[in-house]
Structure to design on (162 residues):
């Protein structure tokens, strides 16, 4: 169920529009991703890793190999992500977590961690996620040194209207 929803959502993105729409609201989405990720680490009592390497399914105990996006997504998606490995990784993590949650529904709440970054792409925005930075294209640059301490106690960003 969750896997089908995730794959359908990813395949439904207008990939030819990525980066065409610049919105300051995407900065809130980027910060909300970091806040949700920090809360995941806090709630699970795990030592925080850089966001780029935060494969939640693996951190929760998934013993399967990492998911290959090519097994689930259409050629349009694959063509786009071939040039943007950081976006590809986020979508692979999201798909893998969806598979894991299908088998372990008690972790459903963690699907929302990747939601803000996916929403940026769905809105036509663009981000670059590297080990030391999250750059929301033409909107905001977030250095990731000390990201956990900065975001773990941040109030939620209102993303309901995005």
């Amino acid at each position: 169920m969750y896997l089908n929803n995730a794959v359908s959502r990813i395949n439904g993105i207008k990939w030819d529009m990525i980066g065409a729409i610049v919105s300051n609201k995407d900065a809130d989405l980027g910060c909300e991703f970091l806040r949700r990720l920090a809360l995941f680490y806090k709630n699970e009592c795990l030592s925080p890793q850089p966001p780029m390497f935060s494969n939640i399914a693996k951190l929760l105990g998934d013993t399967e190999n990492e998911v290959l996006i090519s097994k689930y997504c259409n050629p349009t998606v694959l063509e786009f992500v071939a040039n943007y490995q950081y976006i590809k990784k986020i979508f692979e993590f999201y798909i893998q977590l969806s598979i894991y949650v299908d088998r372990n529904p008690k972790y459903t709440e963690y699907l929302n961690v990747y939601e803000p970054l996916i929403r940026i792409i769905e809105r036509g925005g663009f981000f670059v996620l590297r080990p030391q930075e999250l750059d929301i294209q033409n909107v905001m640059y977030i250095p990731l040194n000390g990201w956990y301490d900065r975001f773990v106690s941040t109030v939620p960003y209102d993303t309901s209207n995005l």
Summary: The longest strand covers residues 127-130. The chain has a mean pLDDT of 94.
